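To close the section, here is one more complete example, presented without commentary so you can practise reading it yourself. The ligand is coproporphyrinogen III.
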Amino acid sequence: MSHATRTRADRSQLPLVAAATGARPSRRPVWFMRQAGRSLPEYRALRAEHGMLESCFDPAMVCEITMQPVRRHDVDAAILFSDIVVPLKAAGIDLDIVAGTGPVIANPVRTAADVAALPRLEPDAVGAVAHAVGLILDELSDTTALIGFAGAPFTLASYLIEGGPSRNYERTKAMMHGDPQTWNLLMGKLADITIAFLRVQLDAGADAMQLFDSWAGMLSAADYQRFVAPHSTRVLAEVAEYGVPRIHFGVGTGELLAPMAATGADVIGVDWRVPLDEAVRRVGPGKAVQGNLDPTLLFAGTDVVEQHVQRVIDDGDRAIAEGAIGHIFNLGHGVLPGTDPDVLTRVVELVHTL
Ligand code: CP3
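Output:
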């Protein structure tokens, strides 16, 4: 089956790609992390009869859920509906995504033997994802980008080692510091899985990609540099040949913005704690910034939302004056499930007119 994939010239028309590459976008691009999901009644209706992982391996459902926020909000990018643990599941690791909790790993990875036994990801195992990318590209307009994504090795490692979400990451940090050799083997294997998963999406035609290192902000800059950065750097280098914007994001990464930028990403995602112009001083010139409206402010009423959308835009303009090559509007982290979707639609309208 053949699908419409875009040429480099086609892609340069996408506001998201233009902003990420220092060209002039036709409008300021905006999309939201977790735009596909529980804030949308049409998502909840579709998911009522299907498990999360089941949905992620059904190309028609992936396409439909990916398109829902695009139709509703007129965002400038679709993000593939999937999850960071999908490639781990596809590789054969026993895990589930539990509603309200997140990923839960049946047999956490704690020893050198556990690491040695980890499977590789064969591209065919995520063939459903490649198929879904093709279906989505057939539906997207010429000005809406499709963002592929993967979890970065550290965030994936934290789930595998802790067995699920964690508050303190004590077992993760214990392996990192106590057995650096096993840690590096694990991170190397996870980097391989991440690279394979991204390549499948990019081969299928994704226009941009985001590497989520959501929980890297739990680390000191020194630990990040020593134990994490080399592996994320390898992931980003291995997909550079596709020539698409590579976005890198984590939460609470104010102290890590410089080393995260040094991993080679083209766009740095910033959470709400650091204003975008200050972020650029830490990141350095020559990259685009993405962010960073606090997702909780979407609950604070119209006046607050309007005021803070304007502030983020002003910060974005100052960031560009300070050397950033572009600004992609987003939240500082994902859309919270109780968010009123009409508020998201209004944010998009504001970003496009202000
Ligand atoms: O719209 C999008 O952003 C695309 C879809 C997407 C999901 N997960 C769908 C999802 C993306 C990009 C992710 C990435 C992801 N998954 C990350 C990185 C992004 C971030 O938030 O920092 C992380 C850390 C995960 C792990 C994970 N999966 C968590 C923490 C949760 C939430 C648990 C919960 O129920 O509160 C999930 C489940 C998940 N992933 C849902 C969705 C829509 C909820 C599933 C449901 O509907 O029950």
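Once you have examined the tokens, check your reading against these statements. Residues 293 and 331 are 4 Å apart (CA to CA). Residues 180-203 form the longest helix (24 residues).
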